[in-house]
Amino acid sequence: MKKLIITLAFGLVLLHPPASSQSVVYDILLAGRSVGELTITPPRSGDGADHFRVRGAIDTFLYDVVYVSENRFENGVLKTSMSSQEVNGKLKEKTNTVQTTGNYRVTFAEGNSAATETTQIPHPINYTVTSLYYREPLNMKQIYSDRYGKMCSVQKVATGAYEVMMPDGKKTLYHYSQGQCREVKSQIAGLNLIFRIRPDSVAR
Known about the structure:
15-stranded antiparallel sheet; mainly beta; globular; 204 residues
């Protein structure tokens, strides 16, 4: 049977995330069955910067996907980010974003191929996709996709619910309660995935 490759898109928190010394974990559900988990590492400060890390993993008899994203911020502004994805133990893609004078340099590599510069983003980045797991995007219109190296539009569709249009044309819906992201619904490769926070990770 042909293996189905699913790509995951996450980002990272930037501004004043909730104070916590423990990781926040989400179960990844497919057709009501758990197929993996998403782990949000508590923010870490040091060397005059804030560091953030998220790791997502899906493991079934069809595929094994591991996604890692790391960001470094200074004064709420993104300085560097790295997004990598492995499928069945092999590197599928990797994106690096680095702030330079007046813009960001974004490079992208597929598998073991050489990295190529894909674009330059001229304005400061203050939010990335995974920051949505840390903080409700109040009054936000655009956020940055670490994976695609592009900006994404954000639209509030209901109380505590926001729709993000990814650069590949797919939509992801984020649900919040008391400012904490509780559930994410995303369609990937035609499949409906749900990222649901575990009860022991819910803020008290």
